[in-house]
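Entry 0007
Protein: ArsR family transcriptional regulator
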Amino acid sequence: MPTDVLSTTFAALADPTRRAILARLRSGECSVTELAEPFDMSMPAVSKHLRVLERAGLIERRRDAQWRRCRINAGPLKEVVDWAEHYRHLWEERLDRMDVYLQELQAKEKSHGRKQRGK
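Output (structure tokens):
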């Protein structure tokens, strides 16, 4: 049963190890060995994470002689951003309302504080 790209991308991003791998790849292409270094796990476990990222289209792997190199592919992340953008206005409205509320609280505190000092 085929799944949509967005679901596959979110499933791949759900794991902190895979997010850390993507974060590392932001600075450029590197070998599987280099990607595995910071993790306390076996090479097969790292390879499993890489397969999930590759199936989601988030990384591309290539062979360079005996080295296996990985690089990030931002295409699926653009789809996540596009999807999240539909909800951005909701958060902005809520943050704007919270800003107004905080300003009202500060104004009340200032006026209340002045009255107490005058007593």
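Curator remark: Residues 77-119 form one domain. The first strand starts at residue 30 and ends at 31.
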